[in-house]
Amino acid sequence: MPVGEKRCVCVTGFGPFKGHLVNASWVAVQELAKLGLSDDVELIIYELPVVYEDVKKIIPGLWEKHKPVLMVHVGVSGIADEITLEQQAHNDGYNRCDVRGVTPITQTCVDGSCHDVIVSKINMAQVCKAVNEANLKVTTVVSHDPGRYLCDFSYYISLHQNRDCSAFIHVPPLGSPYSGAELALGLQASIRAMLTQVQ
After folding, report:
1. Are 164 and 198 in contact (CB under 8 A)?
2. For the purposes of burial, counting CB atoms within 10 Å of the CB of 125, is it exposed (0-12), middle (13-18) or buried (19 or more)?
3. CATH number at residue 108
4. pLDDT digit string (tens) for 62-111?
5. Signal sequence span per UniProt (predicted)?
6. How many Å apart are CA 9 and CA 12, to the nearest integer?
7. Widest CA span of the chain, in angstroms?
8. Does some domain include residue 2?
9. Could you give the residue numbers annotated as active site?
């Protein structure tokens, strides 16, 4: 990379859906944008709709347009009470309707993919350890099941693009127990730890 050129990191959150009219993921990502990552990183944020067909088009477009050194998708989990670092994503089993009441026709993410599961090459256990040792209010855990909804779906699309530098982070709903600002600090620490692996 030429001297003085910034590395691009793309971070997405999701828009509202049933039970989450204010999506904690997008609130946390917007708070992260206020914090930034570092002087040599250009942070691009984007709100994804909870719509399979839109996500399927938008994410490859973000990869093509920004050519990020790291793509991080953030979603909300109603059952989480910690920041959850997802290690892998699945290609099939998408039978839950999106906000338009639609599921993928084949209930798969990438038709014709030879991988039922794709594992990120980013070691989430290392990221988890780094964040938990950072003396923040938030704590992190590692998961291997992002849930077969738009979160899992979006992650698989990015892993299919480039598993070397794709990540997914689940956050709890706002106030359960963290604020948007506290979640943003956790995202910042997590992404900084990920960057040490993709440089």
Report:
1. yes
2. exposed
3. 3.40.630.20
4. 999 999 999 999 999 999 999 999 999 999 999 999 999 999 999 999 99
5. none
6. 10
7. 48
8. no
9. 86, 151, 170
